[in-house]
Write a structure and sequence with these properties.
2 domains; four-stranded antiparallel beta sheet; 65% helix; 190 residues; Alpha-Beta Plaits
Length: 190
Amino acid sequence: MRIRTFFYTIGQGIKSLFRNGWYSIASVATITACLFLFGMFYTIIVNFQHMVRSAEEGVSVTVFFKEGTSEDEIQVLKAEVEKRPEVSKVDFQTADEAWDSFKKQYLGDYAGGFPDNPLEGDDNLQIYMKNVSQQANLVTYLESVNIVREVKRSEVTAMTLSAVNRLITLISAGVILVLLGVSIFLISNT
């Protein structure tokens, strides 16, 4: 494109703005509204996905050990679990720590009625996942370890959070595609 043609095109565009003022204003307003809606939906979707991911981080798998398991064996298992790619954090909790936490959270002043620790021998690992959809793989691995007595998981919560996250992704993609199509249609007609 020659420089003279470029300036001619710019000049015709400016003349057209003044000749068709209302049409130009309507076009700019419509495209602005589409961009505003696009930004609003994008912001809402990103915030919602962040909330779902935050909820996923709170979901944990609890591992209880067989009687007679030494703390060294538990620490070895903890180190192995920490190396797994789907694990974000592993916390070891002794039976006494679990009982103190339970008393504070649920019993309050009534804890004095329990002379001994009813959770004796319930040392456990709290395992937090990076992605709860991979919880089943971790549970299968943990159940195969010979020192593990029981694995507690919240499978329904994990499946629900994964499904909600997928649904949000699909809805966001659909809304963005519709707004993109409307924007392209408006731009091509103005």
